[in-house]
Amino acid sequence: MSGNPQRKYRADYAVPAYLIDTADLDFDIRDDHTAVRAVYGVRRNPESADTQQWRLDGRDMRFVSVAIDDRELSENEYRLTDDALVVDNPPERFTLTVENVIDPEHNLSLEGFYRSGDILCSQCEANGFSRITYFPDRPDVMARYTTRISADAKTFPVLLANGNCVDSGELDGGRHYAVFEDPFAKPCYLFAIVAGDLGVIQDSYTTTSGREVDLRLYTEHGNEDQCHHAMASLKQAMAWDEDTYGLEYDLDSYVTVAVGSFNMGAMENKGLNVFNTACIFARADTATDSDFALVRDVVAHEYFHNYTGNRVTCRDWFQLSLKEGLTVYREHQFAIDQGSPGVTRIRQVRTMREIQFPEDGGPRAHPVRPESYVEMNNFYTITVYEKGAEVIRMIAQMAGREAFLAAVRHYLDKHDGQAVTIEDFVVAMEESTGLDLEQFRRWYAQAGTPRVRVETAFDNGELALTLSQHTPATPGQNEKAEFDIPVEIALFDANGAPVREPEVLRLNTAEKTWTFDGFDAEPTVSALRGFTAPVRLEYDQSDAALARLMAHDSDPVCRWDAAQALYLKTLVADVGARCDGQAPVKAPDLLFDAIETLLDNPPADRELLAEMLTLPSEAMIGEQFEAIDVFAIDAARSALKQAIATRFAVRFEALAGEHAAQGAYVFNVAEAGRRRVLALALDYLAAIDAPGIVERAAALYDAADNMTDRMAALEALRDRSDPARDRVLDDFAATWADYPLVMDKWLRLQAMTRRDDSIERVRELLADSRFDFTNPNRIRALLGGFARGNRPGFHRTDGAGYALIADEILRLDALNPQLAAALAGILAPWRRHVAAQANGMYAALERLGAAELSDNTREIVDAGLERSGEAA
Ligand code: TRP
Ligand code: ZN
Question: What is the pTM of this model?
Fold first, then answer.
């Protein structure tokens, strides 16, 4: 905590004054502390003029000594502050030795070196290394590391660090040691160390050129049988990167450690990934189909970082999307190749619209490459990650697949071993593809979601299609220049037959018109196919045109989107009516006819059918309004769901029957799709309390051999007051008491239960022994599940939901500021809500604003209170 947090600016970048070629670290792990001794081979950076003093970052540790070329410095030769060690007038080339002591046992920040269960592990990105030892904690200082670890052999039989184990052995007093050498120079954020009593599963992978890579996955004992899907996914990812980009793994071993306490999903430390167990564990009876997909994709994501992130890294943290946008893009393409391509893409689009668009339209809107920050950990955002990936996708689309793959290889060759910028990446793309990306660069610089309006006129067999763009102001950026926006379109006739091949239009001015001729009748336009650009499309298409696209569009994204647009028309009208105190608006017959057509001619892809029958989420409905009324949205969505369920009850009964399990659980597209349709049918039937639904859901719960079906049953029962609900929930808690990640599902389900007393239930669970305030997964399940997944509960009119979250943010901020700041982000977009809700959210933010806060949470709260002064 500091009174006056420092804001850092991208424009202030200066090269490091000194470079570190080698870092030899020694960790002496003891019961109540760890002693660290670091020896650096240092030389003056010829490119820097700044040589008076040299600053090494370091926080929350006890300094012991510092020496230059083995001569210990006296107190007037260096200065120590809260967060740095400054050495005056260092020589041209020297060896620096620093000794310090850290306390992993009492480090609850989950940054630096800390304890998770029986494991001591590290997390250094973004600035955790400066909690381990004194070092210039910035990614453009790259060193070759040697790491020696010594510890009690019984408590910590497994010792790990990046690279190859080059020495190990016994020591006196029951202790042992191991020494690791990482041949690749790396920034300190990729450093990792692990010590513990761990179980392991082992496998191997032979690369195309014949390198045999030893694959190991460590977890606490007893969890090994939940790790096989992650191991299989790793091998899939290794093969995919060879087949697609020609990239082979570059070390002899690839080690992954899964820990229970982790702030994010996983971390790509060179050769030694550390994962949240939530992104590794997946067994049929403990994990759902979405968990299986998540594990597969995060394992692949971290693996892909080995090139896009580790071999070529970021010069400074403003460039974060250089590695994250590109790696998410690679992960997205991998996922598309593994699953149902259409539905995988639909899920990516949904994430953009439901989570990224709101961020881009709220108080925390920032460009993919931010201009300033207070706390870097607040910038691991959906914008940097997912919008960053969409920007890469646009480049790939403009270049064409083969040219894009070649351009990525050119970028990796050109900058191998370097710490570079987004500009360097874009230049490499231009060099290799020949594209002119001058205007396109604005996607990195300007925040906000462009709105693209589509207007058509049909006359004399000719269709005139006009696209126009406008991007609303965002904090710190009032004027927006025009974006270069690729919009893919296709044209269909009245029977849904294509009358023109898909084509990509480039909208790079405020407005542009294209004409297409030779039509007998006005064609139907399918626009933004595959979501070719991260924009909000404004197109008042007729119900009939939407129904046609919903029935026939060859692009699954547009087909799904047409269904969404039809649902949204009714929902928006109904929400509006409810807000104005008017009679609810009912769905038109055309909507039911369109659903009937879909049910009569369902797509072969079961997951696509399920997606098309799923109503837009509350978040998506909220996005249609200037001012969100959570209660009107909830009421309208429930009403439409009931109307559809009533009309098609017989069809949903049939679907449930046809999609029941035939054999043992397998995770593949066909089976996951089947389970999705079953869950969807039960959900609709539960919405109208269809006869026998409780028994049916309870029976599914009892008979299921897998967590996906069991969760579908629990969700169908979730909101009812019925002994059957309590019986299955209790059974669930008893069965999975020793599986914390499974108990997270139990916590989340209750937090999301739509009941008048859900806040009181959340408060009860906060005090339950099955909850643990020091574990981020538990917090995300209970508090995240409540604040994000139970909108009516969170926005309860007496303000108790806001008070609850504010209470917990304050309590959490003292332990884990990163996570507290993330929770505070839920309150920040108060302006998007109707007055009653906005006032309550604002009051909670003001209460936070008046308290003593970490820099992390302070930055978010100030942005919410519009006091940050500088946001872009
Ligand atoms: N680099 C990680 C990834 O996306 C993200 C990450 C893991 C992280 N742990 C973190 C970022 C802690 C900030 C803080 O793969
Ligand atoms: Zn990443």
Answer: 0.98
